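Expect chain and fold; see below:
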Amino acid sequence: MNTFEVEIKVLLWSEENVKNLIEKLNSHPDTKPTWWSDQLNHYFLANWKFDTLKSSLQKHIHPDHHEKLDHILQHWKKHSIRTRDADGKVLFVVKATADETTSENWTARLEFEEQVFWLTIHDLDKLILANGFTYQSKWSRKRKDYKYKDFNVSIDKNAWYGYLAEFEKIISNPDEIDQAKQSIRDELENLWIQELAQDRLERMFTFYNANWPEYYGTEKTFTIL
């Protein structure tokens, strides 16, 4: 069964705001941290030659997941191809939109995420590049994940935007996307934090893609209004 991620981002700016948010999350009795990780995320520009890419990847992906990969590549839109290293766990990731936002900066999307064994992130990158894709950008971050009520919450320290939170709901029925978005926005209001506007997020993303070698793997940040 396909599941859909509905997610909204919040720009936190400072370590003090991060601390305040974590205190609010922990005030709920069922909140628990689920994973802390250092991550590298590499984004690729799609050349739409998905058949050749899929053929190259199949031997590294469990056969039970081939059909799901084919479905997202063939039947969804605005694909974002990525690789990720999370504390040595290497993943191949495809995201595609379930609404009219982009697959990089979205509020609703379908995701394929598969751990790739016996390859480093650099080996996996080479395989994707060999199939005609090119780098869009590389990102580095420290991430803390929490389970909070019926949300997944990630708090990142990024070498680009600084401190950022992502509130996510996982649903199985695409007809529930708008309802899920509203539930996240209601929760942000309860927590006294503000959604990062999509147009601003797009400007930040565009700036980073043009300048990523200056930020990747560093502590540098920037401000785009």
